[in-house]
Request: fold
Amino acid sequence: FRLLIPLLVMLFLAIFERIGDYGVTVNRYLVIGMAVGLSVVVLYFTFSRRKDIRLIPVVVFCLAVLACYGPLSAFSFAERSQMNRLDARLRSNDLVVEGKSAETIAVLPEEERRELSSMVDYLLQWHGIDLFDRWFDDATLAAIPNRDDRPNDDLANMFGFDYMGNYGGYWDTDWKSRWFNYSFSHQVLPIAEYDYLIALRFEWSEDQIQSEVHLMGEDSMRILMNRTLAEFAIEPTAERLISERLAFDLTDSLASRMRENEEQQPTPDTLNVLAENDYLRGMLICQAVSGNAGGDSATISVFSGLMLVKRK
Reply:
């Protein structure tokens, strides 16, 4: 146990260096709690003459109660830390508004906008939009068009700065690539013309290509998503099956909207793609998609939708 003491010191130094830069979040609070609990156990078993293993569950229980209830709970402590941090950063940039939206958008350095946007993202994700009544009255918050969906951009503009996402995909450094997030709740599908309907769900990962295998009658087909090319493809999983892939390319429809700086939500048919080869005919139906696009390229981070396939 004595050998763990220097490691614990390094652990606390690393944690508090991060907190000094970015404040307390729920995750960092829990990491601190685990470090404190581990420290208590290590010091007890190192220096106490009486060693009782029952101390471990007692420490875990006390930390769990502290993290879940009261003003020192993980959510309450992190909420105050991030709100105070955002308020201080807003004031340092002369962006604080009281009750109503800012009238103009300030010109801020990219790194400053990214930092402010990251705080807005965190508070929205973990604590909800009602938390922002510290700066805006209820009527102003209620008037946000997409307050129940993704109000990050609106809140940033209300504070008086341009929103910038926390990772490449909102805007790149050359202002050529822009974040998109589209979803459609209702679509009429022409399923009678097809043999198979396949539900698709792909989420962001480090892998350039993700795949899912689907049974279609007696055949198995692999659906591939090349997220950096915004392309979907059907490929056979056995040599006796169709040898030619069927590809659905979303690049043109996604990138063109960014080139034209199109802000309005597209209609469902805008992002539905038809594809055909000598063996198959298919339609890719987009229900929700997000990623970034610009110029002649697009990258998909999250996609959910349907694929209709017919054998010829």
